[in-house]
Amino acid sequence: MKAVANTTSPPQATGLPPGPSTSPVKQTFRYWRERQRYLPQMFDRFGDIVTLRLIPHGPFVILRDPEHIREVFRGAPEIFHGGKGNWNLLPIVGRNSLLTLDAPEHKPERKRMMPPFHHERIAALVDTMRQIAENEARRWPVDRPFRFLDRSYALTLEIIVKAVLGVDDPRRAAALSDALHKVADMDLSGILVLIRPELGKVWPWRKFVRDLEHADRLIYEEIALRRRDPKRDQRTDVLSMLLEDPGADDRDVRDEVMTLLMAGHETTAVGLAWLFERLLRHPAAHARLRRGLDEPKDPYRTAVFKEALRVRPVIHNVARRLTEPIELAGYRLPAGATVVPAIGAVQQDERFWGPDAAEFRPERWIDGNPPAQAWLPFGGGVRRCIGAMFAQVEIETVVAAILRTVAIEAVDPADEGDRMHHITMIPKEGTRIRVVRRLG
Question: What does the domain layout of the chain look like in residue ranges?
């Protein structure tokens, strides 16, 4: 059921919207460590638009109303800079990444990256995804609890290395997987290397720099091998497709590979973990999903995917840095401020999802008419995640493959909590499951 929006936009005003009076240090700590609880508290106190003062980049204007968010997503890319909003990823993905570029460079780079994500190109990788997932599930021990999230990280990384990058030599694939895992496992302190490069000479930042340099060497080796491959034009992996552009230099391709890692590995792994965390605690949904496993495109599988990302969003917000002053929600926001659509808050707002907004109920996507403007797991506008369809196909393929291969259950029937890890919100216990029996 869709409730009528009742925004709490203030009357015309100048300056920044209201916000807490606590110190910027405390606001920054709470934003990075517990935003899933902190932001709803701020919205309840101040309304649909709140100012936080965060270190080191000043005012963050947090948005909950979908209409305000729509204005941001539809805003001129020259004014709403999403690349600067992803400043914390710069040390890993590089300056030529789709995640860190802004207008005017962003548009041509996005266009260049689009072909590998066309529907027919993704469909060509489904069998490889399925085989990797089935092989992974067959290795799981029976009746021995383990953290699904750990295996999900390994599984999605294997898909990145083999299906996306097309590394088919087992030795090279293992070496690259290990190197990329170390880079992806960087904690937030690693971003201090960007602010203070001299830290790269001391521990623990020295290790991060060395891990990144090692991963870079392996990626450049793969690029060189693929450039020399006489059958490259017959391959279906993303790396080969990126090299079809005669203007792509090695640094561009390296940054694109790291972008695929950061945007398509961790987020997909966490999305899978949350899906199973929710599914295994809802027996009726689990049973209904299993009944449709033989259908190549079961609508309920898609409903489970969408509902899991709604109630347990992997990314709780996106950010846009303003290059010029703008009018938004009755306020004149200054250049340099960052506007932040709060995805997690919107997706559980009872005004748009009804009184059962916090409940995991996939049927709402089958029986009703969910408000599309309040479902934003992949962001929106010209910077909507380029791999959204790829992620959906991958997750739905992996879920079906696992459930065909093993019968699983949650170790603890109680809901798992959550915690921040890098830029993602992960299950606090890692989605602990056990295999009841093997099926195939």
Answer: 24-438
8 has a pLDDT exceeding 60: no
Q: In this structure, what token pair is assigned to residue 27?
A: 């606001």
| Diameter over CA atoms, the chain | 65
Give 109-157 pLDDT, tens digit per residue. 888 888 878 888 889 889 999 999 999 999 999 999 999 999 999 999 9
Task: Convert the pLDDT of each residue in 153-206 to its tens digit.
Answer: 999 999 988 888 889 888 998 998 888 888 877 665 655 555 566 666 666 667
Helices 148-158 and 388-405, axial angle in degrees (round to 10):
120
Q: What one-character-per-residue DSSP string does 203-237 give?
A: TTHHHHHHHHHHHHHHHHHHHHHHHH-TTGGG--S
For 24-438, which CATH superfamily applies? Answer: Cytochrome P450 (1.10.630.10)
> Which is nearest to 209 in space by CA: 87, 92, 96?
92
Lookup: tokens for 109: 């780079």
Question: 287: which 2 tokens?
Answer: 């049973």
> Taking the model in full, what pTM does it have?
0.90
Q: How far apart are the first and last CA of the chain?
A: 40
Tokens describing residue 201: 């000479």
Beta bridge partners of 146: 433
Distances 234 to 115, 128, 240, 257, 421 between C-alpha atoms, Å? 15, 16, 9, 20, 39
Return the DSSP state at 159. I
